[in-house]
Design a protein that fits this description.
Elements lengths: L1 H26 L7 H6 L5 E2 L2 E4 L7 E6 L10 H9 L2 E6 L12 H8 L6 E6 L1 H12 L6 E5 L16 E6 L7 H7 L8 E5 L23 H16 L2
Parallel strand pairs: 3-4, 3-5, 5-6, 6-7, 7-8
Antiparallel strand pairs: 1-2, 2-4
Length: 239
């Protein structure tokens, strides 16, 4: 009997090891920046785990953008570059296992790097938006606003009674975050939350990393979708 139990536990251990190894390999199969992004931005370099764009002169505010699941931070470099030209310092973190929920506290790191910046907006794409919402919910005094790109908060992060500006940008052809998901998320957001729909946009074009499994085809160029994202954020954050 003892010998039987020994082999049973060994088999279970090996199975768990195989599952963990498979999960790790899956997390490393990332979405890399597309060739289109390389055409549009200056050279992108990550430093100390961050992709950072700084404006010329004094920053009027800061933005922390959490990347989507398995999407490399560099894939959001166009958004970051455009926002920096509008006067924002922008940081996109590398997160453990390329999954934003493993690095929820990263925004604090960015804030500590730029202590002179008094106003911070946090947001994210897809799973990154869930992580951003988690950070904002636990750090309301440090966050000036929360934004979602094809995303919404997890059920445990209810902002409906919070005095926090919220922007939700979603896309008509998003195959991973549907308009029904966005509608349902309204119950977790303040009554004055701003919703902006990108006609013909899809999930993958919230970044620049090419097609994504499960997504629908976009009906507009990726640069046009990205420019709408930049403009919608700037218009929302300006008041």
């Amino acid at each position: 009997m003892k010998k039987y139990l020994k082999y049973t536990f060994l088999a279970i251990g090996l199975l768990l090891l195989a599952v963990l190894a498979g999960f790790y390999v899956w997390t490393q199969q990332t979405y890399e920046p597309s060739a289109k992004l390389v055409e549009l931005v200056d050279e992108v370099e990550a430093e100390d785990g961050w992709v950072v764009y700084e404006p010329e002169g004094t920053s009027k505010a800061g933005i922390v953008l959490y990347p989507g699941a398995k999407v490399e931070p560099e894939a959001y470099a166009y958004l970051a570059q455009q926002w920096s030209e509008e006067g924002y310092v922008v940081g996109i973190p590398h997160v453990p296992l390329n999954l934003a929920f493993t690095g929820v506290g990263k925004a604090e790191e960015m804030m500590e790097r730029y202590p002179s910046v008094e106003k911070w907006y946090v947001g994210g794409h897809s799973l990154g938006g869930v992580a951003a919402a988690s950070f904002a919910h636990d750090n309301l005094d440090e966050v000036a606003g929360l934004f979602f790109l094809g995303s919404y908060p997890g059920g445990g992060d209810d902002f409906s009674e919070k005095d926090l500006p919220v922007l939700s940008i979603f896309a008509e052809n998003d195959g991973l975050t549907s308009s029904e998901n966005i509608e349902q998320s309204k119950a977790l957001l303040p009554d004055d939350a701003v919703f902006y729909e990108i006609d013909g946009g899809n999930h993958a074009q919230f970044g620049m990393y090419g097609p994504q499994k499960g997504d629908n085809k976009a009906e507009l160029p990726v640069k046009e979708q990205q420019d709408q994202i930049v403009d919608a954020f700037v218009a929302w954050a300006r008041p």
